[in-house]
Amino acid sequence: MTEFAEGFPEQGRKKDRVSKFNIGAMIGIPLAAILFQVYVPQFITYLSYLELPLLVTVYFSLMRRSPVAGIFIGAGIGLAQDALSRHPLGMFGIVKTLVGYFAASVSQRFDVENPMLRMVLALFFVFFHEFFYWVLSRALLGQAVDFDPQQKLVEAVLNAAVAVPLYHILDKLKVTG
Amino acid sequence: MEALLNRYRNLSVLLVAILAQLVLLAYQVKSNGEVRLIRVWSVAAVTPLARALETGRSSVAHFFSDYFVLLDVRDENKRLKDELDRIQMDNQFLRTQLDTADRARSLAIFQSQSPSKTVAAHIIGNTTDTGGTMVIVDRGSGSGVRKGMAVITPDGIVGKVESVYPMASFVLLITDPTFAAGVISQKNHVHGTVKGQGHSTVIVDYVQNEEKVEQGEWFYTSGDDLIFPKGLPVGEATVVRPGKARKEIYVTPSGFQNGTEQVLIVVEGVHVPIPDAAPGEQPVHLLDRPPVDSTSTAPAASQDGPESDADRVVDEYRKIGEAEKHVYGQRGAGAPNYNLSPSDVARKAQDAKTAESHAAPPSAAPAKAAPANAAPASAAPAKAAPANAAPAKPPVKPANP
Lengths: 177, 401
Hints:
Structural class of chain B: alpha+beta
Radius of gyration of chain B: 39 Å
Structural class of chain A: mainly alpha
Shape of chain B: elongated
Strand content of chain B: 15-25%
Distance between the termini of chain A: 32 Å
Radius of gyration of chain A: 17 Å
CATH superfamily of the largest domain in chain B: Rod shape-determining protein MreC, domain 1
Strand content of chain A: under 5%
Strand order of the largest sheet of chain A: 1-2
Number of domains of chain A: 1
Largest interface: A-B, 40 and 42 residues
CATH topology of the largest domain in chain B: Thrombin, subunit H
Helix content of chain B: 25-40%
Helix content of chain A: over 70%
Oligomer: heterodimer
Number of helices of chain B: 8
C-alpha cells in the first residue's frame, strides 16, 4: 500500500518533467531530418516513405510538453518542408502545427518516455498527418489526390517502427540538470 | 477578456498560427504569387549541406571502390593463387571505370556538338514531395539558369526548370503529372502533347484516332511549347491503341535510359529538324577499307592462292583431273590416277593442250575436242573446282593405272 501510494507522486513528477535541448540540437536535428528527406531517397527509393521531419516534430513536441512550443516547432518544420516542395507554403505547415499542438497536449497527460506509448503515438500522428494533408490538398488546393488507407496505415507502422529507436537516440541529446 | 485569453492561451496561439498559414496559402493560391524569401532561406540552408553530403558520399564511394575492391582482389589472389582471376577482377573494375568515364565523355561530346547552348548540372536531391517527380540540381541563377528552361540528356528530354535559386534549381521531371510538352512523331509527323503520369511511362495526348502512329515509333519535341527546342528525342511509343475520343499512346521516356546523375540545362535552344531514322537506327559513317599492305604476305595469299591445306589438295586433284581428262561426278567414269607426281601432271596437261590445238580446227565446235574441265589450270580460279570433286582421302591404289 505504501509503495503504491508513493508511486503516484513519482509518476506525476515524471510527467511534469520538461526535457530541454541545446539550441544546436533544436535547429540541427530538424534540418538533418529535412535534408535526409531531400537527399537520401534519390539513392534508396523506398526510404521516401519515411517522414523524418514529422517524427522529429512529434518528438520535440512530446518532450517540450508545451502546446505553444509544439505549435511553433510544427509550424517551423512544416514551413521549411513546404519551402522545399512545389506546393504553396502552408500545406505541411498547417498539418504539422496541428500535430505539434496535439502531441504536446497528449504529453501533459501520459508518460511519453514509454517506448510502447511512443510507438502508438508515432503511428497515430503519421496517419493523422497523411490524412489531414490529403484533406487539405482536396479542400484548399482542389487537387484530386488518392488516399489509400491501407497503404497509409502500412507507412504509419513503418514510421512508428523507426520512431522508437530514433527517439531513443534523440533522448541522448537532452540537456540534463 | 485578458483572463479569457490566458485561460485559452494555447488554443488562441494555435488558431492564430493556423489562420496565418491559411492567409499565406490563400494569398499564394489567389495571386499565384510566391513567398520567395522563405523558399530562398530554406534552399540556402539545405543546398550547401546537400552538396557537402554529395561530396562526402562520392569520396566514400571512391574510397570503397578504390580500396576495398582492390583489397578483395588481393585476398582473392592470395587464396586462389591464380593470376588469371586477379587480372579478370582488375579488368572488370577498369571496365566499370571506363563505363563511368564514357558516360561523362558522351555528355561532354553531346554538349560540344549540340547546336543549343547548354550548362551541365548535377542532381543533388529530390524535393520533399511524395513520389519524387521533382529534383534539385546544383545550378542556379548564378550559372545563367532561368525558370522554364529545358533539361535534357544526350538520350532525350528530362524535364524543365520549375524554380530557380542562386545556387540551385528545381527541375520538374517529364514523369510528373503536371508536366506537358509539345511533341511530333518521327515517321508520320503527328503532333501531340506529352504528359507525365506520376510513374515511369508518359502519355501523348490530343492525337486523333484517325491519325497514324505506329508502335515503336519515336517522338521528338516539336518546339511548339517554346520551352524545348525542336528535334530532341522524347521516347519510343510502347503502346498505341484507339481510345474513346483520342488515341491512347504510351511512351517510355528515353532521357532516363542511362541514369540521370548529370543533366544539361538548355540555356539557348536551337531548333533542329526531326531525324529520318530513330536514334538507334541512324546510319553510321564507315571509312573505306585500308589499302593492301604489299609487305604483308598473309592477305596476298588469301586473295589468289590456296588459303589452306584443304584448298591445296583440291587444287592438286583438279589439276590431276584435267590432266587425265576426268569429269568428277560423272557416272561410270571411274577415278583418275591420284598417284601422279606433279611433274607427270604438268607433262600430261601440256600434251593434252598440244593435242587439242592440233586436232581441232578453229572453225570446229570446241565442245567435244576440249571439255570444260580440260581448260588450263591458270584459267580457272582456285575456288572454282566443285566441292564434291575432291575425295576425303586419296585412294591407296590407282583405279586405272
